[in-house]
Amino acid sequence: MSTHVFTAQDASGRRCRIQLIRNDEAAQASHAATDTRPIYVLEDGSHVRRIDNDTFQVIGTGAYVTRVTD
Hints:
Strand 1 and strand 2 form a beta hairpin. It is globular, with a radius of gyration of 13 Å. The chain is built from one helix and six strands, in the order ββαββββ. The protein has one domain. The protein is mainly β. Strands 1-2-3-4-5-6 form a six-stranded antiparallel β-barrel.
């Protein structure tokens, strides 16, 4: 499993960290077709979905956050 963390910001200027989780090892070990899509999670555990390269939507609230440089 590989993990990547980056910073995002909401419309009010609050920053948060988004973790990208990939389960590459499980996909390679399994011969059956598995879901290998990356999972995006906020630091508080909330799931987000990727809209485009820099925009994400928090699943639980519908709020948008935009990726920013650290």
